[in-house]
Every structure is written in C-alpha cells, then in structure tokens.
Amino acid sequence: MTLDNNTPNPPAKKRATGTILIISLVILAFMGAAVWFLFFRGGSDADERTAYDNIIRYENTHQLDSLGEALNDYFDTYNSDAFHYSQLKDLHDRFFTERDDWQSTEASMSLEAVRQFLGVHPDGFYLGDATRKLDSLSYVEACAANTREAYEHYLDQFAQGKFAAEARKQISELDNEELSIEEKTAVKEALTTHFDALGDNDKGTIASTLASEISSYIGKANPELEDIYAYMSNMHSSGRMIVFNVKNTTITKVNAGGRSMYNVQFSLEEETYARGSHPTLDTETGNPDEGDKSAASDVKTFSGTAVLNEGMKITSLVLRK
Fold this sequence. Notes:
Layout: H1 10-41, H2 45-60, H3 64-77, H4 85-108, H5 111-120, H6 127-145, H7 148-157, H8 164-177, H9 181-200, H10 203-209, E1 216-217, E2 220-221, H11 225-235, E3 241-256, E4 259-273, E5 298-308, E6 314-320
Parallel strand pairs: 1-6
Antiparallel strand pairs: 1-2, 3-4, 4-5, 5-6
Helix pairs in contact: 2-3, 3-4, 5-6, 6-7, 7-8, 9-10
C-alpha cells in the first residue's frame, strides 16, 4: 500500500499549536507580572521621580514631619531597584537617626544634652530647633544666677537671641541696684553733712541736705522745713555744744519707679558738751579728738534709718534709742 505524502498529520499540528499557546500564556503572565510590579508594587518611573522630588522639597523647606512620612512611604513602595533608592536610603538613615536623638534630647530638658546633640549633629535637620532650645535654656541658666556676668555670658552667645532684650534689661536693673564706691561715699557724706549741720544749728546746710518732700523726720510724718528747724532750735536751747558721729552704715540701693533710692541703716552717737567746754577738734573730721571725749557731759547712742533719693537728699529719717 502506498502512503500519500500530502495527507495531513493532525496530532502533530495540534501539539505545535498547544505549545505556542502555552508559550504565549507564559509570556503574557510575565508581562502581567511586570506590569503589576511596575505600576502596583514598584510604581512607574514617573511616580518614583515624583516621590523623590517631594522628599527633596520637604528636606529643602525643612518640613520635617512631611519628610519623615514621605521617606517611609517611599521605602514601603520601592525596593533597591528604584533609581533613587540608594540616595534616599542614606537620607532616610540620617534623618531617622537624628530625629531619635533629638526626641531624647528634648525629653531631657538639659542644657548639656542640647550641647552634646549639637556636637554630634552640628548642621543637621534639627539645628534650628536645637539652637532655639539652647537659647531658652541658656537664658534660664542666666536668670538662675541673676548676675551681670551671667547675663553678659548669655548675650555673648545669643546677641540676637529671643531673650536678648530682656537680658539687657536685667543688666540695667542690676546696674541700678549695684552700689558703687562713689555712691557709698556720697550717701555717707550726705548723712554726715546733715548731722553736722544739725549739731551746728545751721539752717542753710540742713535745708541743702533735705528733699523737697519728706515722708518722716525723727517722729514727725510729712514735716515742713520749719518743723525741722524748730526741732533743731529746741535741741540747742540749752546752749550746749552737740556733736554727732555717724557710724556703721549699711547701704542698700533699690529701684523705685525707674529711679534709684538708697536705704541706710546706721548708728549715731550724740555727744553733748557743757557750756564753755571747748574740746579740741580733729582737723580732718571736725569731731572732738578721742582724748577729749571724756569731757562730754552726756553720750547717747541711737540706731537710725534713712532714705535718700538719687540726688542724695534725705526723704526720711528715723532714730531709735
């Protein structure tokens, strides 16, 4: 029997068609997986670029909360095959390491902790926050010391700081309250001049040592100048010589309504010499020599309180035995 070469072989043809179909399905499956990965798992190149641009924008504009969220979203979406993965991985690690350090520093509320943080991250993401915290804590430290030197140290670091104006105000107030040697001398001289005039019955000098308004003078409230003259005249009615010695002065400077006032605590010796007795006077002080004090017929000691204004004029004078 002779076979016809033109007779088709159906089984072989079916096998070839099946193979092609299987290969086609495999290719489609790979393509589908690639499409899914590109658009649903890894995102398109355009999406990855947009995500990258947003992260860089948040970094440049210092939107740190948005930066942290965007970095987390990026690494949830893209793997190491993404174009910007390596670059953003470095940024991710630096940012979250510094953020953790800053949160720990903030929780400590310690000036030393902030300084240590800035030493580790001198130009980091939280430089502004750390600098502001250093400013405020440094001012708190200066206030705790409350000295001119402490406020000046703060201003050396933060000349344009948040509390710079307040620090300068505190320095000014401290300067007003700090008593200079010249002020101490002036207060003592004003009191000595007043009591010397009182002992000499010198109305003109007495008037020059008193303020225009006096709240109290040796037991009398709101006295007039004539009241003080009368007090002095009565003191000299016996004709005896009277010498006053101001001693043991303690002076405190206070700020009252923007003006300096001086509170003085002192002791006062009143030495009375009988009529006709003329003790030798010390050429420097004008007081009786120590060797002649035995001639005094009476010696009294008072504790005194005086208030002088910034012109070194007495506004109040109280004496107690």
